[in-house]
Amino acid sequence: MIKNSKVVFFDMGNTLLHFHFGKTDDEKDTIGIKYLTEFLKQYNCKIEFDDVKKNFFDVWKKVMPLRKINHTEYEVEYYLNSFLKKYNVYLDLDICIKAMDTFYTEYRNNIWIEENIHRTLESIKEKGYRIGVISNSSLYDEVMINCFEKVQLAKYIDIFTFSYYLKICKPKEQIFEIAMDRMKVSPEEAIMIGDNLKNDIEPAQKVGLTGIWFNRDLTINNTYIKPDNEILKLEDLIELL
């Protein structure tokens, strides 16, 4: 049993939510670009799919690898409005959020979650713990929270801490410190559960959290990182609390 803990933090992708199920990512992107094109036609009917794909989506996706190098996020609205400039269209932040939420429809519709995840999170809450999410995200917080709403998990989460608006990505330790500050909890009172040893477990342990590795795929740990514990299913966490 983990003593003195009050808050359980989870990673999002490949931990609470699994985005790479159902249709392939390429299929979901293609459908998303179609939805986005129709959304943008409200502002200029001349906007076409091929142009959206080539001059917005492909340009935006090219910066995605930089996230892992610079550990920051890149503003979607910059790339979207740069593309729309030739159409004399400018979208404010709220409209950009709606646009990208529309784009993300198929990802949201194809999310997979563990069979007993609702009961697992309910049990954690019943034990008196608060639950937070600490996750990298290349899209707006609102889009990601809608994904939690889609699978009815948002009601269990007390506070979401995503990288997008903060412009701070894991494995930077600061995002964990911000999450703890938001939850008003000390490192000794917090647990981090995630599937990535480098992004989730190591930085969490460095700032004093208990790091529990969610090893659903039975990956052999050949790294120097030593999690405080390891679980194969999220429901296994209940026995540790």
From TrEMBL:
It holds the Pfam family HAD_2. Keywords: Hydrolase, Magnesium, Metal-binding. Its cofactor is Mg(2+). The keyword Transmembrane helix does not apply. It comes from the Bacteria. GO terms for biological process: small molecule metabolic process. The keyword Metal-binding applies. One of its GO terms (molecular function) is phosphatase activity. InterPro entries: HAD-like_hydrolase, HAD-like_sf, HAD-SF_hydro_IA, HAD-SF_hydro_IIIA, HAD_2, HAD_sf. This is HAD family hydrolase. It comes from Tissierella pigra. The lineage of its organism: Bacteria, Bacillati, Bacillota, Tissierellia, Tissierellales.
